[in-house]
Amino acid sequence: MSAHQDSGHAHGPQRHGHGSGHGNGNGHGHAHQSSEIDWEVMATQLETSGELQLPVLHGTAARLREQFAPEHQVRRVLDIGSGPGVMTCVLAEAFADAEAVAVDGTPALLERTLARAERLGLGGRVSVLHSELPEGLADLGEADLIWSSKAVHHIGDQQSVLDALTGLLRPGGVLAVAEGGLPMRFLPRDIGLGRPGLQARIDAVLEELFAVMRAELPDSKPVVEDWPAMLRRAGLAEVQSFTLLLDLPAPLDETARAFLHGHLSRARESMRETLAADDVKTLDVLLDLDAPEGILRRSDAFLLSATTVVTGVRPQ
Question: What is the pLDDT of residue 40?
């Protein structure tokens, strides 16, 4: 299993995936057409997503430090579904005495993690672990902090994954899960193309595709996605949540525009048979590299997303 953060992690910005950044446009961090996603192909998009999310990721790491008792020494951190390792490196910086371990099922993304760690001078404290989940959960080893962003929902039995991750925590350790949040927003309701409300209709289709993806997963089990309650059922105490906002106002820089172009390209590919024909035509204009109304040239494009993190502490 690889998670994702085609965000902007939405995301990867919102609904943060590969544990790097957050958000895709639906509150789930990606536009699903099936449960098969080529994370290696998405590597650049995932890393860009994570880098756009860095203000949120650094803020998240600071909040996670506050979850520990003053006497608790954080020695090992696991990033589950780490993708290209943007958050892994943020956690290594935030917990300077800990080994940060990126856990992912895609070797190419783990290679990006190691390269990123070297560039940031973190090579001695960031390691990688190739693991397919949920099968590989038992081999991950103990940790003081386990971070997972947009990874749990790629596994059929989400509660069992939370139970297993809790079992890996040392007493006083913290599990932090980023699932949910709000759909990413990046265009006005009326963009002067097609019918107003394009993003709302895209969100509706993405929710349906997400439901199909979940239903197709092995051992898929429906569950009320009350994440605080799920963490409590896993045996965690002091369960709480916090939400951080990514707000990149218009006009966006080239990096953010390129991310949105990738996001819309993937959305169009996954929705071309389910989205209304006139909305597909609108997407074609937004994706046109030369059109003044395209996402790469619009002056009204922005990036706004909210990432919600739920945490719990393993009792001593």
Answer: 65
